[in-house]
Design goal:
This protein has eleven helices and eight strands. It is α/β, with parallel strands linked by helices and 258 residues long. Helix 6 (120-127) links the parallel strand 4 (110-114) and strand 5 (133-138). It is globular. 43% of the residues are buried.
């Protein structure tokens, strides 16, 4: 997939499914790009996956800049998306623009921000200033303490209707994509039908235009329990543990170096 976001719009019109994955460093980003992933997300999930934190709230804008820059050096084909971290965009549209500009200068081609209706003004402000935006609704990890945990959203008819209204409003404000996390599949499919921009799902069923998963879940590197909606394609942690154990054993037995 070309880095041109317009090609994502074309894929939606043609019904072609697209794939996103997170990556936080140069080697994994290079592998993801070579594997043909359509998009790479430098997510603030890095605070949990590589920082060992219980949530994403402690990730700084400086950290996001750093990881965006090293991922961007590795990627030739995939679209590069970067998260606006907690505290970097909520205060005002101007604050969001300043943070977005830093991520785009670091290599991001589209920024992602969490929140529904309260973010409509900010999305419009950014879009008018040449910042492509992906709006993130549903389970928004930066609101985890407000939600009382990582809980599925949109389970009641009223909550589902709010999600649909938020998605439509964000798209109309200029969001180029809408990411939906941990919401009912039928709600995600309805949003996909009702907005003209591509939708990305994570734990939102098969009815979205694209899917995204966390790299560590896909490769079996998440030492904690992966979320139920994720699919692990290889037991990477066990393979790496075996290799490291063998190396330590070879050193102790004078088998390395030979």
């Amino acid at each position: 997939m070309s880095k041109n976001i317009g090609n994502w719009d074309k894929a939606k019109r043609e019904g072609r499914k697209l794939s996103f994955i997170t990556a936080y460093d140069h080697p994994f980003a290079r592998m993801a790009d070579a594997a043909g992933l359509d998009g790479i997300l430098i997510g603030d999930s890095l605070g949990m996956m590589i920082g060992g934190a219980p949530d994403t709230l402690g990730v700084s804008l400086e950290q996001m800049e750093y990881h965006t820059a090293i991922v961007a050096k590795a990627v030739q084909k995939a679209l590069i998306m970067a998260d606006l971290p907690f505290g970097s965009f909520e205060e005002s549209p101007a604050q969001a623009f300043a943070a977005s500009a830093r991520l785009m200068k670091a290599g991001a081609e589209i920024v992602k921000l969490e929140g529904g209706a309260p973010m409509v003004e900010t999305v419009a402000f950014l879009s008018a200033r040449a910042v492509p935006v992906c709006a993130h609704i549903g389970l928004t990890p930066q609101h985890v303490r407000q939600f009382g945990g990582f809980k599925r959203q949109g389970k009641t008819p009223e909550a589902a209707e709010r999600l649909i209204e938020d998605a439509i409003a964000l798209a109309q404000a200029g969001a180029r994509m809408v990411l939906m996390e941990a919401i009912p599949a039928d709600v995600a499919a309805e949003i996909t039908r009702r907005v003209s921009v591509p939708t990305i799902g994570i734990g939102a069923g098969p009815g979205t235009d694209a899917q995204v998963l966390v790299l560590h879940d896909v490769l079996g590197l998440n030492m904690d329990r992966a979320p139920g909606f994720a699919r692990t394609y290889i037991n990477g942690a066990a393979l790496m543990q075996e290799a490291l154990t063998k190396y330590a054993e070879d050193v102790r037995a004078s088998k390395f170096p030979e």
